[in-house]
C-alpha cells in the first residue's frame, strides 16, 4: 500500500464546522418533524440523512483540495447509501406507533418529554453522526501518491458477487472470478 500524501489538513479542519452544521440542520429538521408527528423515532429515518448532509458539505467545502473525482465519488456513494437507508427505515416504521425504546427512554429524566428527546435522542445521535462522518470526510481533502485510482476501485467492485443478509445485517462477500 502506498502512503497517502498531499493531505490538506487545513481544508479538512475548515470543512468540519460545515459538516457539523449540516448534521445539526438535519437533526433540527428531524426534531421538528418528529414533534409535529408526535413520534420521536423519526430520528431513526434521519440517521442516513445525517451522512448525506455531512458528505455533501465535506465535498463542497473542500473544493480546491484533494482529487475532485474522489471527493464527488465519495459524496455520491455516501448520498446513495444514506438515502437508501432513510427510505428503508422510513418504510419500515411507516404506519407504526412510537418505538417502545424511545417511550421507555423518554419517561425517565427531565419532566419535559421534549427536553428529554433533545438531550437523550437528537443531540447524542447528531454528535455520533458528526464523529463518524469525520473519518470518511478525510479522502475529500487527500490526494494519494498516485492520484485517483478509479479503475482499481471499479475492478474491485466487479469482484463482489454476493451480498448476504445475516441477522438483519448486510455482509458483502468478495469472490474472485475464476472465468474471464
At a glance:
With 180 residues, the chain is mainly alpha-helical.
Describe the structure.
The protein has 180 residues and is mainly alpha-helical. The chain has one domain (4-149). The protein is 65% helix and 9% strand. The chain has six helices and four strands, in the order E-H-H-H-H-H-E-H-E-E. It has helices at 9-37, 42-61, 68-93, 100-107, 113-137, 150-158; strands at 4-5, 143-144, 160-166, 169-174. Strands 1-2 form a two-stranded antiparallel sheet. It has a two-stranded antiparallel sheet with strand order 3-4. Helix 1 runs antiparallel to helix 2 (42-61), helix 2 (42-61) packs parallel to helix 5 and helix 4 crosses helix 5. The longest helix is centred in the first third of the chain and has 29 residues, at 9-37.
Topology:
Blueprint: E1 4-5, H1 9-37, H2 42-61, H3 68-93, H4 100-107, H5 113-137, E2 143-144, H6 150-158, E3 160-166, E4 169-174
Antiparallel strand pairs: 1-2, 3-4
